[in-house]
Amino acid sequence: MRKIKLLTLALFGILSLTVLVAAVQKKAPHGVSKAFRNNSCVTCHAGLTEPLGTSAHFYEWRSSRHAKNDVGCEKCHGGNPASSSYKLAHEGVLAPTFAQSTLHPKNLAQTCSACHQEIASAFVKSKHSQALQATGNGPSCINCHQHMATAVITWPPETAALCAKCHTSNGSASQYLAVPTQAGETIAAFSRTDGVLEWAQFLLSEGKSKKVRLQDETEKIRQLEAANKQAKVQWHEFNLSASRRTVDDVFLRATVIKDNIWKKLPE
Ligand code: HEC
Ligand code: HEC
Ligand code: HEC
Ligand code: HEC
Ligand code: HEC
After folding, report:
1. For residue 162, is it within any domain?
2. Does the beta carbon of 141 sit less than 6 angstroms from any atom of ligand 3?
3. pLDDT reported for residue 153
4. Residue ranges of the chain with per-residue pLDDT less than 70
5. Which residue, 69, 89, 109, sits at the end of a domain?
6. 101-124 burial, b for 16+ CB within 10 Å, e for fewer?
7. How many angstroms separate the alpha carbon of residue 221 from the centre of ligand 2?
8. pLDDT score, position 25
C-alpha cells in the first residue's frame, strides 16, 4: 500500500516537473538574447499587449543596453524568473511606490550598486542622496536615466533643464543657481571627450590593419579611457568642478595622442 502511494507520488512529481520545465522552456522570441530562453519574465511579457504601461515597458527594456548585456527584469524588479506561474514569478515584485520596493527612489542606489558599485557609492556620498533620504526631495538614478535606466543624457540643454527643475529661484534647491549652466557645460565637456576617444580608437584600429606600431599610443588611450570613466564617477558625487577638471584634462591629452596617431598613419 505504502509502496504504491510512494510510486504515485514520485510519478506525480516527475510529471509536474516535466510540465513546469516545458512551460518555462518556451523559447525566447527571436530578436531577444538567447540568455533569456528560460527567463519567464521575458518569455511571458514578450507576448503581452495589455495593459499598455506594462507592454510599453517591455519594449523600453528590449531596446536598452541592459537587454543587450543580458540584464533581465528580475535583476532590478526581483521575482522568480524560473517560474512560469504569474503568482510565483511575481513574488516580491512590488510597484516602485512601495517603500520596500527595490525600485523605490530611496532604494535605487542599493539595487543598481549590484553592478554599478563605484557610481552608486559616489552617489550615496552626495548631498542629493542625503536630501533624498531625509526629505524625499532629491534626484535619484532614474531622474537622469529614465525608467529602466535606458537613457544617458548627452544634450547639454536637456541636462540644464533637468537640474533647473529644482535649481531655480523658486525651486527646492534655490541656493545653487549656477548649477544648470555649469551642468550643461560639464555634459558638453563629457561629450567631446567621448568623441575624441572614439576617434582615437578608430585611428588605432586603422593603424592595426595597416600594421603600424602604435603600442605606446594604445596604452595611453587605455589609461585615458579609465580616467574618463573616473570623471563620470565623480559626476555622481555632484562635484561638478572636479569632474570638469578631470574630463578636460583627458580631452587635451587625448587630442595630442589622436594627432600623433594620425601623423603615423600612411596616406
Ligand atoms: C505568466 C506570465 C507572466 C510572467 C511569468 C511574469 N509576468 Fe509580469 N506581468 C504579467 C501580466 C499579465 C502583467 C500585468 C498585470 C496587470 O496589471 O493586469 C504583469 C505585470 C508586471 C509588472 C507591473 C507591475 C504591476 O503589478 O502592475 C511588473 C513590474 C512585472 N510584471 C515584472 C515581472 C517580472 C520581474 C517577472 C519575472 C520574475 C514577471 N513579471 C513574470 C505576466 C507575467
Ligand atoms: C536596470 C533595471 C531594470 C530592468 C533590467 C528592468 N526594469 Fe522595469 N523598471 C525599472 C525602473 C527603475 C522603473 C521605474 C520605476 C519608477 O518609475 O519609479 C521600472 C518600471 C517598470 C514598470 C512600470 C512600473 C510598475 O511596476 O508598474 C514595468 C511594468 C516594468 N518596469 C517592467 C519591466 C520588465 C517586464 C522588464 C524586463 C523585460 C524590466 N522592467 C526590466 C528598472 C528596470
Ligand atoms: C545585473 C547588473 C546590472 C544592474 C542590476 C544594473 N545595471 Fe546598468 N548596466 C549593466 C551593464 C552590463 C551595462 C552595460 C555596460 C556597458 O555597456 O559598458 C549597464 C549600463 C547602464 C547604463 C549606461 C546606458 C547607456 O546607454 O550607456 C546606465 C545609465 C545604467 N546601466 C544604469 C543603471 C541603473 C540606474 C540601474 C538600477 C536601476 C542599473 N543600471 C542596474 C548592468 C546592470
Ligand atoms: C543628476 C543626474 C544623474 C543622476 C541622479 C545619476 N546619473 Fe548616472 N549619469 C549621469 C550623467 C550626466 C552621466 C554621463 C553621461 C555621459 O556619458 O556623457 C551618467 C553616466 C552613468 C553611467 C554610465 C557611465 C559610463 O562610464 O559610461 C551609469 C552606469 C550611471 N550613470 C548609473 C547611475 C546610477 C546607478 C545612478 C544612481 C545611483 C545614477 N547614475 C544617478 C547623470 C546622472
Ligand atoms: C529633485 C530636485 C533636484 C534636481 C532635479 C537636481 N537637484 Fe541638485 N540639489 C537638490 C537638493 C535638494 C540639494 C541639496 C541642497 C542642500 O541641502 O544643500 C542639491 C544640491 C546640489 C549641489 C550642491 C552639492 C554640494 O555638495 O555642494 C549640486 C552641485 C547639485 N545639486 C547639482 C545638480 C545637478 C548637476 C543637477 C542636474 C543634473 C541637479 N542638481 C538636479 C535637488 C535637486
Report:
1. no
2. yes
3. 82
4. 1-28, 149
5. 89
6. bbbbbebbbebbeeebeebbebbb
7. 36
8. 46
Q: How far is CA 115 from CA 66, 112, 129, in A?
A: 11, 6, 18
The structure's pTM equals 0.90
Name the one residue in this structure whose C-alpha cell is 537640474: 163
Q: Are 152 and 146 in contact (CB under 8 A)?
A: no
Nearest ligand for residue 240 CA = 5
Query: Ligand 5 mean position to 138 CA, how many Å?
Result: 7
Range of the domain at 199: 179-264
Cell numbers 572614439 correspond to: 198
Q: Closest ligand 1 atom to the C-alpha of 83?
A: 5
**Amino acid 3: pLDDT:** 56
Domain assignment present for 194: yes
